[in-house]
């Protein structure tokens, strides 16, 4: 029997069409998650690994934040070797909630 202890479970993704507005707003209410979304918006899809973000939280908290973003339909993740790569589901999310990401991604006043 192969050793599965080194394998991570595939992340569960929620399509934006299945997300309620309350879930989306709650996901975007946290400053760390907003920073993650902004960094993803400023980079090409699948180029940011989880450990490459400049956020002031540990690995466990970062995993939690990504789980919230996946559940809100904002982020998709895939494993590539030892890294978990990310992409912002901007097009799909914009179709579901037109204008919401635009407001979040605006520069701070």
Uncertain regions spanning at least 5 consecutive residues: 1-6
| End-to-end distance | 57 Å
CATH superfamily: Winged helix-like DNA-binding domain superfamily/Winged helix DNA-binding domain
Corresponding CATH architecture: Orthogonal Bundle
Biggest sheet features: 3 strands, antiparallel
Mean pLDDT: 89
Number of helices: 5
Q: Which sequence of SSEs, written as H and E, runs from N to C?
A: HHEHEEHH
Q: Report Rg.
A: 14 Å
Strand order in the largest sheet: 1-3-2
Strand content: 5-15%
Q: Number of DSSP strands?
A: 3
The class by helix and strand makeup works out as alpha+beta
Percent helix, as a range, is: 40-55%
How many distinct folded domains? 1
Any idea what the shape is? globular
CATH top-level class: Mainly Alpha
| CATH topology tier name | Arc Repressor Mutant, subunit A
Keywords:
109 residues, alpha+beta, Arc Repressor Mutant, subunit A, 5 helices, globular, transcription regulation, DNA-binding transcription factor activity
């Amino acid at each position: 029997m192969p050793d599965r202890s080194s394998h991570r479970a595939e992340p569960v993704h929620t399509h934006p069409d299945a997300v309620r507005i309350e879930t989306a707003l709650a996901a975007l209410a946290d400053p760390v998650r907003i920073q993650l979304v902004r960094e993803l918006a400023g980079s090409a899809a699948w180029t940011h690994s989880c450990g490459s973000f400049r956020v002031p939280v540990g690995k466990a908290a970062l995993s939690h934040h990504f789980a919230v973003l996946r559940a809100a339909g904002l982020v998709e993740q895939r494993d590539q070797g030892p890294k978990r790569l990310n992409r912002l589901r901007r097009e799909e999310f914009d179709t579901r909630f037109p204008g919401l990401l635009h407001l979040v991604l605006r520069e701070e006043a």
